[in-house]
Amino acid sequence: MTFFSSWRSFLKKGFLFFLASLVCFSVTLTNHFANSPALAKEPAVIVQVPTVKLSQLPQEARTTLKLIDQGGPFPYPNKDGTTFFNREKLLPNKPKGYYREYTIPTPGLRHRGARRFVVGNGGEIYYTGDHYQSFFRVLRQ
To answer: Which residues, at least 6 apart from 58, have a Cβ–Cβ distance to it below 8 Å?
Structure first.
């Protein structure tokens, strides 16, 4: 065996060892950082929404909630029951289509006004009296 053939054999083995080590290192790094918060698609945000008792809301809110419970009819059928997208990110982050919005009429106004219920698929109810600037989670008691 010549010097060059033994040298080539050593280089092949060394190169294979290097490749195997590189693969192991890559797998280790990938597994280590897979759940890293830095790689999260969206930051985890814990939203805390204050609560309000249904009895503390205006009478029109209680009437609207009864309509929601019975499935309508609603005063604004083209708007009530439509998807609320939570663009303000003031409510817990949920998939698109999870929340629905409903108008709570305001006496004396000829338009929809600012008051709304936002209802989640899980049964949670949120009230806004200022057109999505702030929310309260409604307690039915």
So the answer is: 104, 115
Residue 48: pLDDT band by 50, 70, 90 thresholds? Answer: confident
d(CA 31, CA 42): 20
Q: Is 32 a catalytic residue?
A: no
Q: How many CA atoms lie less than 13 Å away from 106 in the CB half-sphere?
A: 13
The third-level CATH classification (topology) of the domain covering 51-139 is: Nuclear Transport Factor 2; Chain: A, (3.10.450)
Identified catalytic residue from 32, 60, 88, 101:
101
Task: Judge contact between 45 and 89, C-beta under 8 A.
Answer: yes
Predicted TM-score (pTM) of this structure: 0.68
Known catalytic residue at 111: no
